């Protein structure tokens, strides 16, 4: 038998995030007449990562007879889930009970309740996660702007000889704190936020590092600017800005394609409801799905591939759906496959199933949009801090204290400006990574694009503000 101890989960919030998707997949199969066994096996094979791993263990135990059946294994697993994922446990229990009901109306009611429970759990988890970001983000805000400003701009006053006495700290210590200690603290906070982010679904891949190659254009730019100005500060600003622009420009097409895929995936889910209406009106599945998806202009390519696959599939509609829709959204392809299976028995019943699934998907989308909107304010503040506010404040501080720096003997304002330029580059990189993680995108290409977009703006603002005096 399985270990009776509580299952240890590194990030329980990730399970809560996946809950509505898993419940939706199980509801599609159970409402379509499938068993709990087939529903659990489908989620174990095609479901979201973390829940899939849990259910794979149940399926394996049932197949080798460590458990009498999948239902027993599911009950045992649910009893050992941590308290923090109680809504998910209740939703899965409700789905398991619904699979035993012979009354279709009662079955649909229980599956609807299961979906509502998982969505409410996701909403509460999202609210809790959003609230937990306030303190870390304000810490980053304070460390990222106020501390470097105080450290670097107080040096001229501390070094004015007998007026203030012996200088208590040296320039090397201040530079170390600005370029090493503060970024290290920000990095630690950022990694903590990343590990607790339940919406982070994509991870960086080493192979994507090749997209940073356009940034090497900064080297010839640095050589050219140095020969023209012999200024380390100007050379750094120009080379970093050129690298950022080149990297962002090279990734622009990727960003547009990624946004298009996200849009297409959303439209495929929206089309489920339209498909249900067409099936209820009496259309056959092949005609209904082509028409339902075809009304969205962004999905013309998908419809073209789908029509071709349906003509060549020789009756294997499941494979045609997976080949044409799967590359954009595997979960949507599975939904359409389940609706097609139901339509083979009763077209109008398949339509009612599609409408039920469409409503669940719309409810999930509403909850997730609400959570994203709550995170958007925090993300925008971080981007504004790194791209505009921090370079503006630090640049203005350098500009206003320039006369005071000329009166001090131990401080060179050009060194202060150079140190802050390097620090703003570090801050821009860290904030780019952080905001990408908060948006749920851990892909290295998205991170590089964000860095390339932010650094030129930061360097331009800092250079303009520090040159006012």
DSSP helical segment count: 19
Low-confidence stretches: none
Along the chain, the helix and strand elements come as HHHHHHHHHHHHHHHHHHH
Q: Could you tell me the mean pLDDT?
A: 82
- Rg from Cα: 28 Å
Coarse structural class: mainly alpha
Count structural domains.
3
Looking at the structure, what is the overall shape? elongated
Helix coverage percent: over 70%
Main beta sheet = none
End-to-end gap: 76 Å
Architecture blueprint of SSEs:
Elements: H1 12-31, H2 36-46, H3 49-63, H4 70-79, H5 86-98, H6 104-132, H7 134-153, H8 155-158, H9 171-196, H10 218-229, H11 232-280, H12 285-294, H13 300-312, H14 317-325, H15 330-343, H16 347-400, H17 402-407, H18 413-438, H19 444-466
Overview of this protein structure:
There is one protein chain. The chain is an all-alpha fold and 469 residues long. The chain folds into three domains: 12-129; 133-262 and 365-466, no CATH class; 280-354, no CATH class. 78% of the residues lie in helices and 0% in strands. It has helices spanning 12-31, 36-46, 49-63, 70-79, 86-98, 104-132, 134-153, 155-158, 171-196, 218-229, 232-280, 285-294, 300-312, 317-325, 330-343, 347-400, 402-407, 413-438, 444-466. Helix 6 runs parallel beside helix 16 (347-400), helix 11 runs parallel beside helix 15 and helix 16 runs antiparallel to helix 18. The longest helix has 54 residues, at 347-400. The N and C termini lie far apart (76 Å).
């Amino acid at each position: 038998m399985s270990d009776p101890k509580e299952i240890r989960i590194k990030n329980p919030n990730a399970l809560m995030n996946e809950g509505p998707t898993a419940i939706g997949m199980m509801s599609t199969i159970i409402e379509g007449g499938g068993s709990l066994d087939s529903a659990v096996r489908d989620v174990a094979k095609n479901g979201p990562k973390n829940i899939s791993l849990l259910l794979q263990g149940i399926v394996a135990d049932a197949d080798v007879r460590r458990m009498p059946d999948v239902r027993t294994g599911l009950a045992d697993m649910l009893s050992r889930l941590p308290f923090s994922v109680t809504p998910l446990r209740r939703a899965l229990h409700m789905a398991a009970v619904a699979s035993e009901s012979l009354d279709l109306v009662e079955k649909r009611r229980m599956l609807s309740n299961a979906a509502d429970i998982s969505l409410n759990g996701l909403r509460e988890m999202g609210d809790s996660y959003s609230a937990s970001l306030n303190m870390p983000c304000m810490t980053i805000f304070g460390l990222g702007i106020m501390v470097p400003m105080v450290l670097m701009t107080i040096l001229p006053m501390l070094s004015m000889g007998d007026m203030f006495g012996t200088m208590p700290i040296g320039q090397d210590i201040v530079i170390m704190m600005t370029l090493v200690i503060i970024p290290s603290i920000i990095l630690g906070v950022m990694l903590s936020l990343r590990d607790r982010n339940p919406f982070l679904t994509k991870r960086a891949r080493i192979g994507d590092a090749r997209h940073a190659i356009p940034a090497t254009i900064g080297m010839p730019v640095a050589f050219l600017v140095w020969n023209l100005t012999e200024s380390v500060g100007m050379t750094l600003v120009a080379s970093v800005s050129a690298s950022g622009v080149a990297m962002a420009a090279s990734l622009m097409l990727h960003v547009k394609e990624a946004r298009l895929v996200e849009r297409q995936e959303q439209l495929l889910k929206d089309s489920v409801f339209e498909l249900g209406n067409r099936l209820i009106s009496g259309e056959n599945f092949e005609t209904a799905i082509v028409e339902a998806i075809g009304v969205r202009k962004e999905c013309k390519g998908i419809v073209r591939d789908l029509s071709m696959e349906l003509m060549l599939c020789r009756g294997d509609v499941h494979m045609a759906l997976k080949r044409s829709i799967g590359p954009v959204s595997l979960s949507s392809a599975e939904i359409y496959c389940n609706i097609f299976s139901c339509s083979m028995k009763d077209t109008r019943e398949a339509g009612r199933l599609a409408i039920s699934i469409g409503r669940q998907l719309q409810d999930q989308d509403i909850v997730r949009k609400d959570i994203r909107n709550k995170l958007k304010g925090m993300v925008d503040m971080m981007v504004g801090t790194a791209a505009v506010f921090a370079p503006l404040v630090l640049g203005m501080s350098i500009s206003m204290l320039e006369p005071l720096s000329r009166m001090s003997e131990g401080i060179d304002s050009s060194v202060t400006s150079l140190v802050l330029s390097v620090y703003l580059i570090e801050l821009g990189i860290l904030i780019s990574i952080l905001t990408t993680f908060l948006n749920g995108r851990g892909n290295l290409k998205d991170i590089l694009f964000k860095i390339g977009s932010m650094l030129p703006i930061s360097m331009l603002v800092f250079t303009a503000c520090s040159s006012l005096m």
